[in-house]
Design brief:
The chain is an alpha/beta fold. It has 14 helices and 15 strands. Helix 3 runs antiparallel to helix 11 and helix 12 runs parallel beside helix 14. The longest helix is centred in the first third of the chain and has 20 residues. Bound molecules: pyridoxal-5'-phosphate.
Length: 403
């Protein structure tokens, strides 16, 4: 006998058995296709979060699924103790596409951030000549780079840090968007500057125009590696393959993840244009699952689909249209509308009573979005969203703000 669980049952079971480290919008999803997801009662929603950009290509994309299924019936994991016949093909493709010289594969985003930090530190000691143990990496306040001990060590979010110390030393924080602060924070021991092109978790915060050009100059002049965390901004989200293209710069080290797995599988990578990754020797870093053939096959397909199906251009054009339409909404509750490509946010005035209630009202109207911090609603649908679908989302948005 099978028992049909009700939404309240899922909630109750999760509450009893699960760690309470998330506070989800109450909806139990069981199916997805493109921009749409369905709950257990068959109600349909337009997904305006896209798993924080892990499913840029749209839910259950047929071609990526076929790549996954095909590879999963052939060979899934060998470990890096042996070679497999997919890794090299992925290496070549991603380096070619992103104009990188070397790549290191990992699984989750934060793991790739850690690997980038390790390799830039090693570059600092072996190439730049920093005294052992003294390497410093500069980061920005309100950053989000993941959840490991070392990465929360340089978070400015007290909730992300509280009770998790002691922390990893070697990081120094400066305000985001302030190139003079970067210049003054650099010392002879500075090996890297780790920064997001657009601060996503902080509420889709764009830097002032020209900031990254100056950052690039300062890093080059001081022999400091510019490490861009493009885990969220990368792979089409902002209307370019990498958000650095908007700034007309090239990072020394780029971290990608999320959409690299096409919504199917955790895949992340460190990309390097310099000698940074070249410093790593056998045994110094690794991951049992990193670079497995299944991950490589999924990632190859995830990249192919992004490019061949014009998803990056769509993010650019439909993203601009979405931003325009959101900006037209007349409501006293809105404080700011901002973003780039399909990485958008609507910030509400504090008097509006918090973004959460609006996200819940949007859910009741068939739109799934999530608040970030108290007053901001992030809108980052799969990159396959159409202008008509945007019109419909904006209608729902307009209604919940008036009601
Ligand atoms: C999501 C995210 C991460 C962490 O990725 P995980 O896969 O959750 O470890 C790091 N940096 C940025 C900018 C992100 O958006």
């Amino acid at each position: 006998m099978t028992v049909q669980l009700q939404p309240k049952d899922f909630r109750a079971i999760e509450a009893i058995f699960g760690a309470h480290n998330y506070d989800p919008i109450d909806v139990v999803l069981s199916r997805g296709e493109g921009v749409w997801v369905w709950d257990t009662d068959g109600n349909r929603y337009l997904d305006c979060l896209a798993a924080y950009s892990a499913v840029n290509q749209g839910h259950c994309h047929t071609k990526i699924r076929e790549a996954l299924v095909e590879q999963s019936s052939r060979l899934t994991i060998t470990s890096r103790a042996f070679r497999n016949d997919v890794l090299a093909l992925f290496y070549e493709e991603i380096c070619d596409l992103t104009n990188s010289r070397k790549v290191l594969m990992a699984n989750s985003g934060v793991e790739a951030v850690e690997a980038a930090i390790k390799s830039v530190r090693k570059w600092g000691y072996r190439v730049k000549g920093v005294e052992d143990g003294a390497a410093e990496i500069i980061v920005c306040s309100n950053n989000f780079h993941g959840r490991t001990i070392s990465v929360v060590s340089f978070s400015s979010d007290s909730v992300a840090r509280r009770d998790f110390g002691p922390f990893t030393p070697g990081f120094r924080s400066i305000p985001f968007g302030d190139s003079e602060a970067l210049e003054s924070a650099i010392t002879p021991n500075t090996v890297g500057f780790l920064v997001e092109p657009i601060q996503g978790e902080a509420g889709v915060i764009l830097p002032p125009g020209g900031y990254f050009k100056k950052v690039r100059e300062i890093c080059t002049a001081n022999n400091v590696m510019l490490i861009l965390d493009e885990i969220q901004t990368g792979l089409g989200r902002t209307g370019r393959l990498l958000a650095e293209e908007h700034e007309e710069i090239e990072a020394d080290v780029t971290v990608v993840g999320k959409a690299l797995g096409g919504g199917f599988y955790p895949v992340s990578a460190v990309l390097s244009n310099t000698e940074v990754l070249g410093t790593l020797q056998p045994g110094e870093h690794g991951s049992t699952f990193g670079g497995n053939p299944l991950a490589c096959a999924v990632a190859r397909s995830a990249l192919t689909v992004l490019v061949e199906e014009d998803m990056i251009e769509n993010a650019d054009t439909v993203g601009k249209y979405f931003l325009d339409r959101l900006s037209e909404i007349q409501s006293d509750s809105i404080r700011d509308v901002r973003g780039r490509g399909l990485m958008l946010a609507v910030e509400l005035r504090p008097e509006a009573g918090g973004a959460r209630i609006y996200c819940e009202r949007l859910r009741d109207r068939g739109v799934l979005a999530k608040e970030t911090h108290t007053n901001t609603i992030r809108l980052s649908p799969p990159l396959v969203i159409t202008a008509d679908q945007v019109d419909w989302v904006v209608e729902q948005f307009d209604s919940v703000l008036q009601g």
